[in-house]
Amino acid sequence: MPSSPCSTQTQRGAAALVVTMLLLFAMVLVAAFANRHLVFEQRSAANQARST
């Protein structure tokens, strides 16, 4: 039973949405870890500046 073109387009749209959401989630994770690392470095630098 062949699928109608409308359902194929819907499936492609849903697949594109899932892929886009996964990429967005990955980018948010990378940004969160980078921000966490930068805050740690900033605190370390401030502590070092105070100790000298």
Question: Could you characterize the architecture of this molecule?
Answer:
The protein has 52 residues and is mostly helical. It is built from one helix and no strands. The longest helix is centred in the middle third of the chain and has 47 residues. The radius of gyration is 23 Å and the shape is rod-shaped. The model has no long low-confidence stretch (mean pLDDT 87).
Write the topology of this structure.
Blueprint: H1 5-51
Helix content: over 70%
Largest sheet: none
Helix vs. strand class: mainly alpha
Assign an overall shape: rod-shaped
Please count the helical segments. Answer: 1
Quaternary form: single chain
Radius of gyration: 23 Å
Mean pLDDT comes to 87
**Total DSSP E strands:** 0
Q: Write down the secondary-structure element order.
A: H
Strand content: under 5%
Q: Poorly predicted ranges (pLDDT <50, ≥5 residues)?
A: none
Straight-line N-to-C gap = 77 Å
Quick tags:
0% strand, single chain, mainly alpha, 52 residues
Summarize the structure.
This protein has one helix at residues 5-51. With 52 residues, it is an all-alpha fold. It has a domain at 20-52.
